Structures are given as C-alpha cells and as structure tokens.
C-alpha cells in the first residue's frame, strides 16, 4: 500500500489475501497509504484482471527458461504504447511467487536484473523497483490511441482457439497446454485490439465450420 501510494497507483487488487487489507497491523504498516488508493479483494486472478488489457508478471527468472523473460527497460516501450492505465502488474506471494497457471495468464514476464550470485528480492523491493522504473521512464508519455482488448476478451479468444485447434487435430488432446502456452505468448506480445480478437474468433468459427462442427459459416463476430 505504501509503495503503491508513493507512485500514484490508483488501485490495489488482492487475490485471496491471507490477511485483510483493513487489518490493524496492515494499516499500521501502510502509514496512511491506504487513503490514497482503492483496495479490492478477489477470489480469482481472472476476475481481478478482467477489465485490464495487459498483464505483466514479475518473476525471478529461475526455472523460467521456457518463458520469454524481459527486463523492465525492455518492457517499457510496449507498456507505454498500449496505454499504462490498462496495465496491471501481477505479483505472487513472498514465498512461492506466481503459479504456472497465473504466469500463463500474463502477457509479459518481467524480471528485475540482479547479480546472478544473489538474485533474491523480497516482494516489496520488486514492486518498488518496477513502479519506480515505470514512473521515471514513462513520465510525460502519451498513451496509445489504439487500446488493446480487455483481458477477459483475450481469454475468450484463447479458449476458442483451444476448442477449434482440438477440433481440427492441431492440439494434442492429452497435453493441449504445450502449444497453447506458446500461442498465449504470441498473443500477449501482440497486444490485440478488440477488432483483431473478433477477426481471430471468426477464423476459429470458420475452422469449425470447415471441420463440420458448426452449421453457420458466417456468424456474428460480437460473441
């Protein structure tokens, strides 16, 4: 709460917190920071992120060799171009970090550069470094006039891709996530607009029609 207030973050979304944000000890540590931001509580990350267009995960990079992990400086141009007001930084808990499922939901994975011999940061340090980096390098930047699709819309596309690619035999039914994870990374880097999401879902429906599983060749793209 203190760090968020320091850098003007408008909202803090907590997913299944072990302690409530209005707990007296939390408020003591917050030092009044809670008065400068809205705090919401959620049961699932998908619900908390539904209205955002870009999710940025923070991870140490250890054991993430199969993920495209970038530095904050490398990610900044993309975040500024998409419009910072729709970007959410996603952090795991102090001991375990983010689960693989939560990482899969994120568009970018950022790791703070540290010395390889001692790469350990605590949660508050990581949050402060990322917020400070964004604040210093994005000051005065204009948001992009093209707003990416909301996270919930992109998740709908990914699920539609899963169904369609299973239908045409492209995905392995026993392990569809192997390819879907790679597709998620492509989609996350692209920052698809609502129109592009609708177009890709139209392609999915056309694949299903060609495979004989849908009777409608040209359905409405608004679903």
Description:
It is built from 9 helices and 6 strands; from the N terminus they run H-E-H-E-H-E-E-H-E-H-E-H-H-H-H. Strand 1 (11-15), helix 2 (24-30) and strand 2 (38-42) form a beta-alpha-beta unit. 43% of the residues lie in helices and 11% in strands. It has 223 residues and is of the alpha/beta class. The chain folds into 2 domains: 2-137, SPOUT methyltransferase, trefoil knot domain (Alpha/beta knot, 3-Layer(aba) Sandwich); 151-210, Helicase, Ruva Protein, domain 3, CATH 1.10.8. Residues 218-223 have low confidence and may be disordered. The strands form 2 sheets. Strands 4-6-3-5 form a 4-stranded parallel β-sheet. Helix 7 crosses helix 8 (177-190) and helix 7 (151-167) runs parallel beside helix 9. The chain has helices at 2-6, 24-30, 45-49, 72-82, 100-105, 123-137, 151-167, 177-190, 194-210; strands at residues 11-15, 38-42, 54-58, 69-70, 87-90, 108-110.
Annotated CATH topology of the largest domain: Alpha/beta knot
- SS-derived structural category: alpha/beta
Summarize the amount of helix as a percent range.
40-55%
Q: How confident overall, as mean pLDDT?
A: 86
As laid out across the biggest beta sheet, the strand order is 4-6-3-5
Taken in chain order, the helices and strands follow as HEHEHEEHEHEHHHH
Amino-to-carboxy terminus distance: 38 Å
Number of strands: 6
- Helix tally equals 9
Domains (count): 2
Largest sheet report: 4 strands, parallel
- Principal-axes geometry comes out as elongated
Which CATH architecture of the largest domain? 3-Layer(aba) Sandwich
* % residues in beta strands: 5-15%
CATH class of the largest domain: Alpha Beta
Please identify which CATH superfamily of the largest domain we are dealing with.
SPOUT methyltransferase, trefoil knot domain
From the alpha carbons, calculate the radius of gyration and give it in angstroms: 19 Å
Uncertain segments are 218-223
